[in-house]
Automatic annotation (TrEMBL):
Molecular function GO labels: rhamnulose-1-phosphate aldolase activity
Presence of keyword Glycoprotein: no
PANTHER family reported for this sequence: 3-OXO-TETRONATE 4-PHOSPHATE DECARBOXYLASE-RELATED, FUCULOSE PHOSPHATE ALDOLASE
Entry EC no(s): 4.1.2.19
The Class II aldolase/adducin N-terminal domain, residue ranges: 8-241
Protein name: Rhamnulose-1-phosphate aldolase
Length: 276
């Protein structure tokens, strides 16, 4: 039995996230937008696996108004109550494929014991739609509780600009990985339409949204791109926390990278920093 690549990468990514301590117990969720070819070959690709394909899909309607340009897309998505430590043992139980419809989705494969998609599916659909409108290569949305970023947002009054500048100024690679910056959403109740809509709005001009005092919402053209974005921001947040702790001063009062330093990095690597 061998799974198609997009399922194998989901298995690896969920386990890596759990190993990093970002997805305790049932925390976090991931979705991946299938390519045209993967949709065409789904029946063949899943034939020798424990995924089941439903001739009569389970229909969920009246959940949200799906933007027109995103209707008909297929997402591989993690289940509500899936545990990323254990998902690798039972991907067909803990993930499934949904087809996005006008006001919801049809479950077309997977979730073989009857689990349902993450309660954040509303946010996933809107996040994909927002990024897909910006970049036709967009594929992956990840939500998790990246530890250093959560801690940083608990310790500091963060805004989109202050967090972006702090993380840019402690790790030279940061501005290259997220030149569009990081947007901060003040704390909101998760799993609601409001947080989904507010997140999607911010994703019109950024790839990474921090949910203050909760976690991150990252997007990317593939799993590695999306994971790497969180990894870099979380590394920078860790440096910023250590810097604050060791010096006893706010990040910007230390000998961090200046705007001129950041501009020089941008020039050398041909990116444009949002706040410079
Ligand atoms: Zn969460």
């Amino acid at each position: 039995m061998s799974y198609p690549r997009y399922i194998n990468e989901m298995i690896e990514t969920t386990y890596d996230m759990w190993s990093k301590g970002w997805d305790e117990y049932n925390g976090g969720n991931i979705s991946y937008r299938l390519t045209e070819q993967e949709i065409q070959e789904m029946a063949t690709d899943l034939a020798d696996t424990d995924y089941r394909i439903y001739s009569e899909p389970i229909v969920v309607e009246n959940l949200l108004e799906v933007p027109h340009h995103f209707q008909g897309q297929y997402l591989l998505i993690t289940a509500s109550g899936s545990h990323f430590r254990y998902l690798k043992e039972q991907p067909a139980v803990d993930t499934g494929i949904v087809k996005v419809t006008e006001t919801g989705y049809d479950i077309v494969a997977g979730f073989v014991t009857g689990k349902r998609p993450t309660s954040e599916i509303y946010m996933h659909i809107l996040a994909h739609a927002a990024r897909y409108a910006q970049n036709k290569e967009h594929r992956v949305v990840i939500h998790n509780h990246a530890t250093n970023i959560v801690l940083y947002s608990l310790l500091n009054e963060v805004t989109s600009e202050s967090l972006t500048r702090d993380l840019w100024s402690v790790l030279t690679e940061s501005i290259v990985v997220f030149p569009d910056g990081i947007d901060v959403l003040p704390w909101m109740v998760p799993g609601t339409k409001e947080i989904g809509q507010a997140t999607a709005k911010l994703l019109e001009h950024t790839r990474l949204v921090v949910w203050a005092k909760h976690g991150v919402l990252s997007t990317g053209v593939d799993y590695e791109d999306c994971f790497g974005l969180i990894e870099t921001a979380n590394k920078a947040a860790g440096l910023a926390l250590d810097l604050q702790r060791i010096s006893g001063k706010p990040v910007q009062e230390n000998d961090v990278l200046t705007d001129d330093n950041l501009r020089a990095v941008c020039k050398a690597l041909h990116v444009e920093g949002r706040y410079l």
